[in-house]
Structures are given as C-alpha cells and as structure tokens.
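Record type: monomer structure entry
Structure origin: computed from sequence
Chain ID: A
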Amino acid sequence: MTAALVPLVVLLPLLGAASALILGRHRRAQMLVSTAVLAAVVVIASVLLAVVDAGEPIAVNVGAWPAPFGIVLVVDRLSAIMLLVSAIVLLVVLVYAVGQGVADRHRETPVSIFHPSYLILSAGVFNAFIAGDLFNLYVGFEILLSASYVLLTLGGTGERIRAGVTYIIVSLVSSLFFLSAIALIYGATGTANIAQLSVRIGALPENVQLILHLLLLIAFGIKAAVFPLSFWLPDSYPTAPAPVTAVFAGLLTKVGVYAIIRTETVIFSEQDLSLLLMVIGGLTMVIGILGALTQADIKRLLSFTLVSHIGYMIFGIALGTQLGMAATIYYVVHHITVQTTLFLTTGLIERFGGATSINRLAGLLKASPFLAILFFIPALNLGGIPPFSGFLGKAGLFLAGGEQAAADPATAWLVWVVIAAGAITSLITLYALTRFWNMAFWRGREELDGYESVLLGSVLEAPEGATVTATKTTPRLMVAATTVLVVVTVLLTVFAGPLFGLADRAAADLVDPSSYVSLVFPGGVQ
C-alpha cells in the first residue's frame, strides 16, 4: 500500500501543473491547486520517511516492468529525507511567492506562468531524488532545468535574460556531459540501472571506470556548483525574483550533491577518488568565500557563500565513512533550510529598504527589529555559531575528518588542511554576514550619506547593478513564510540528536549499499 504513494510525489505536481495551466485565468484557483499539491507531497513524504526508517527501503517498478527493463523508483532513508525537506521548503516558498504576487499584482511572478513552472520544477526535483536509474535521473534534471529556465527569466528584464542565457548554456553543457556518460556506461555495461551498475561496473578495466567516473562527476559538479565549475552561479541566481532565487539556492545545487553521493556510494563504491574530491571540497570552500568577501550586494554575497558551503558537503562525501556521510546528510538539510531562509529574508530587506547593497541600506534595526531578527538568526547559523545546526554539522564533519586522519596517516595532512580551510571559511562567512548586518541594520539612517568605514573598503557593487529601488509594502504572508523557515532552522538545533540519528542510519545504508542493490534485484543480478 505504501509503495503506491511513491509515484505520487512526481505525478501530483505534474497533474497540478496541468491543472494550473488550464486555470490560467483564475488566479485564486491556481494558487489553491499549487498549495494543495505541495501540502499533499509533504504529507506523503512524511509517511514514506516514517515507513522506510522503521523498515526496509521501497522500490516501485513503474508499469510492472521489472528492473532493469523498466523504470524503478527507489525510496530509502536518504531519498525520503531529501523528499521531505525539499517538499517543506517548496511549500513555504510558494506561500511566500503567493504573498508577494498578491501585493505586487503578480508583476514579478505572473500566476499563469509561475505556478505551472513551479510545480514542474518540484516534480523534477522529486523525480531526481527517487530515480533508480541514471536515465530517469537525467529526466528529473531536465524537467527541473526546463522549468528553471522559465522561472529565472520571469519579468523579461535585460538582466534576467542575460543571466538566463548563461544559465541555459551551462546547464546544456552539464546535460551533454551527463547524457554522454549515460551512453558510454550503457554501452560498456548494458544497463543504466544504478543498483545493477554497482555489480557490473567493477568488471570494466580500471581506466574505463575512471573515465566514466570523471564524466559523471563533471556533470554533477556543474549542477552542484563545485570549484572550478561554479563560475556561473553568482551571476545567475541573484537576478531572479526572491522566491525563485531562494528555491534555486536551497535546492537545485543539492540535487547535484545528492547525485554525487549516489555515484560515490553505489555506482563507483569500489573506486577511490577521495583525494580528488577532498581537494575540490577544500578549494570550493576557500574560493567561494573569498568571492563573498568582495561583494556589497547581499544577494551576490549569499550566492558566493552558497558555492563555498557546497565544499563542506564534498568534503564529507570524500571521507566516505559512516560518520562523514551522516554529517554530510545533516549539513545538506541544514544548508537547504538556512540558505533558503536567508534569500527569503533578503527579499524582505529589498522590499523594506529599497535595495540589497550595504552602500544603500541603513537603519533597518530601528525601522524593523523583527526583520533584523529574521536575518540575524540564520546568518549566525550559516556562520557556524554554537549551538546552531551550522556549528553541529561542521563539528560532525571535522570530527569525521579527524577520525579519518588518525586511521590513514598517509593522507592525514590533506584532511587537516581541508579541516583548517573549513574553519577559516566558517569564520569568514560569519564576518561577511555580520558586516552586512552592521551596515544595513545597526548603522543609523542618518549616517548613510558620506559614510566611511574599513568594512566598506573592499566591497564591489554587482555588475550593472541597479540603483536604489522604491520601497514596497511587506505583506504579512511573506513575513509569516520566512518566520516559519527561521523556526525550522532553529528546530534543526533543538532536535539535532534525533535528526543526526536519522542521518546516521541513512549513512549506514550508504556505506553498505547491499540492501539498496538487493531491493532492486532480489538475489543479485550480474
């Protein structure tokens, strides 16, 4: 009975998108359909997580075609966690977008376009998390990317069109790498099923395995925005409307991270590229946060911190231990919620203060103390201040790194270098965010004109950045949605013990993928 729920997480958003398109002239009906669909997915994802955590993973053969001949949908603990977190975030951001749309008469998010595209994006994200074969994973990516092209260019401004063109080109290159890798893998092994590949891939020559492995990592690395494949992100995400930017920042890169986890733990579990991943993780941390230091615009600053903190997840994947994977899963959940929250808060700041640059904002603490709190809490969280989830996730990763260094003295120096890079990155993140808070919130409004400070000495405005915009009303629905996500980020700390326990059980499944493989192919298939 529970297995019947699995396809619904994809079917409901697709049917909802079709319904929203038909209801293009009825705004309230569209908003009701979109909200109801994502609320239903939240409920289904909660049930699936409870079921798989209490028992075994769930595999569904679509159309009753057995794997590998048909499409198989698989939900294990990791898939269920990602489904639930992404569904909650998508629902809250949708409520935020509805509030913004009603207040602005849908200029930023035209209802007839936004809601169908948003639901299609959701379907693509959900499909990627439950895909049991590489081609279905590719389909999930393409579904979400096709919708993201539309969402990124909403409004049709020149800045958004330029950013959209860059995003489309990079996405197409990534898709080309991914599709080429699938074709080569299928040609070499006769299957694209993830579970069956874990059995067959080891029979290939080592150099062939390495080529296929690197092709997948390049494709997923572009999607996850790891260095040096992250150049496109800071110029693409900040131009979109606030709710779109929030979803992109919170979820889309994590789909790439999820794909890397599956690649490393199931498909190529016997081939060790941990040193390469560790170097990439460390460089992603450092290069990303150095870019954030030079930004005056908070949207670009957050985009660079987004890139930087992907490095922590790559580091945890590179460790390959159960503790490292558990900390990575916990950190992914933390980062999805916190990064989304910060971008939603930035949308409120832009409406209330009329700008997003620290050169044009001041006095917000006095004008809106609640908005100051909404930004301050997730900022401290992302910066890794105890006892927030950002600190707990980083502490888990560093502890796992220390254990790995003790177990393998030959590579211990590299592990400690990356741990040091992670600690420095966390401090710089905190500095960059508190600098913005001090300038935008703490500084008095009367000090704005002619204000000089060493904090502003090295920051740069966004390329072709817009001048100060007019302030707008801040609907209660937008504030309420942001507040809900802030509360969720705090709950990640309050319930850190049970959540980390869940992440640890999911990590145990990843370290030993035999249950995943035997579920799809009972008895094993060569």
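Annotation 1: Residues 272-452+472-515 form one domain.
Annotation 2: The chain has a mean pLDDT of 86.
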